[in-house]
């Protein structure tokens, strides 16, 4: 049954991708990309990768869709006519696709318990993580403890991405506080937004501090919290949103989250352990693991929240400048 569901979802993915290729309306393309992300999230759920599905739905279908819509506000809705021949791009795609398919021929059978991935570190994590880390969510144990150094690099990449985007777009200025924007004339949207934004923020806190015991963590919580502020900006206008969460504060938060993560690793050195060794943070190693994971997940959430919201502010401010002109 699971294989049948996967085949149906893969077929829907292929149909969505083909439709995206031939559409000229970029707004419809963005909407279909959101559907594509939701279908991908369903596939991950069917594969029991709930944490990955959570991230795909929040980032791929949520934040990415909003940012692409912000890009359309700057570039236009319709694709410009292209006079170049499609033969060369088609040839490149065919060659690249053939190389990728050829690379999969040596892959072990899907789901085979004798696969190298199931014989290497997976048994170690499955058998030892309950005693060493003590978290019910094994994904969090792997990402926040066993692979903590890699996750620190990923957090730094998010921070670097925000720096790169902001260096090109910049953040809103205080002089924009008088610009009229948003959907203030839509009473229903305003009422609904006022009702669901607090719930979204509460859910973000739940995901942040419940990631040890269920799907979630700092990455997902940061994206969800940023989505709440983005919804506020879309409904009530960017100037009011920048008064609630000021752009200058976002710069501080983005760097502070990375520093919190790195400082937790340095704390392990001061207590006689290795970098990002949480065992030495408390008298009980398992308690130290819990403390370290909670702190670094908080740092991840802060950085992701600030980075995503800063990028949105950058796109939204550029769109509003374009509308004024």
From TrEMBL:
Ranges that cross the membrane: 6-22, 29-47, 53-74, 86-105, 152-171, 191-209, 221-240, 252-271, 291-316
Intracellular or extracellular location(s): Cell membrane
Entry keywords, A to Z: Cell membrane, Membrane, Transmembrane, Transmembrane helix
Na+/H+ antiporter MnhB subunit-related protein domain location: 188-309
Presence of keyword NAD: no
Cellular component terms per the entry's GO annotation: plasma membrane
Membrane topology classification: Multi-pass membrane protein
Domain spans labelled MrpA C-terminal/MbhE: 115-179
Chief place where the protein resides: membrane
Domain MrpA C-terminal/MbhD: 12-76
Annotated Pfam families: MbhD, MbhE, MnhB
InterPro entries noted in UniProt: CPA3_antiporter_subunitB (IPR050622), MnhB (IPR007182), MrpA_C/MbhD (IPR025383), MrpA_C/MbhE (IPR046806)
PANTHER family in UniProt: NA(+)/H(+) ANTIPORTER SUBUNIT B, NA(+)_H(+) ANTIPORTER SUBUNIT B
Record NCBIfam families: PRK12504.1 (NF009159), PRK12507.1 (NF009161), PRK12508.1 (NF009162)
Family label: Belongs to the CPA3 antiporters (TC 2.A.63) subunit B family.
Name of the protein this chain belongs to: DUF4040 domain-containing protein
């Amino acid at each position: 049954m699971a294989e049948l569901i996967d085949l149906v979802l893969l077929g829907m993915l292929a149909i969505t991708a083909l439709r995206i290729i031939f559409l000229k309306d970029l707004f419809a393309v963005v909407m279909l990309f959101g559907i594509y992300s939701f279908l991908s999230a369903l596939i991950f759920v069917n594969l029991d990768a709930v944490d990955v599905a959570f991230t795909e739905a929040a980032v791929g279908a949520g934040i990415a869709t909003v940012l692409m819509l912000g890009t359309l506000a700057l570039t236009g809705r319709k694709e410009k006519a292209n006079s170049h021949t499609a033969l060369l791009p088609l040839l490149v795609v065919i060659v690249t696709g053939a190389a990728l398919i050829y690379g999969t021929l040596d892959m072990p059978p899907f789901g085979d318990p004798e696969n190298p991935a199931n014989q290497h570190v997976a048994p170690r994590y499955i058998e030892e993580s309950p005693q060493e880390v003590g978290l019910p969510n094994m994904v969090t144990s792997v990402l926040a403890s066993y692979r903590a150094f890699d996750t620190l690099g990923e957090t730094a990449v998010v921070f670097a991405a925000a720096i790169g985007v902001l260096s090109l777009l910049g953040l809103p200025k205080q002089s924009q506080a008088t610009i009229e924007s948003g959907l203030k004339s839509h009473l229903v949207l305003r009422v609904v937004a006022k009702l669901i934004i607090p719930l979204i923020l509460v859910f973000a806190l739940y995901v942040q501090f419940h990631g040890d015991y269920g799907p979630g963590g700092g990455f997902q919580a940061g994206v969800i919290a940023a989505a709440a502020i983005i919804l506020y900006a879309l409904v009530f206008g960017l100037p009011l949103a920048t008064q609630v969460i000021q752009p200058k504060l976002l710069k501080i938060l983005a760097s502070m989250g990375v520093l919190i993560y790195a400082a937790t690793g340095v704390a392990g050195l001061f207590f006689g352990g290795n970098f990002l060794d949480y065992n030495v943070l408390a008298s009980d190693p398992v308690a130290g693991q819990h403390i370290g994971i909670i702190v670094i997940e908080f740092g991840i959430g802060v950085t992701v929240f600030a980075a995503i919201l800063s990028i949105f502010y950058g796109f939204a401010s550029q769109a509003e400048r374009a509308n004024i002109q």
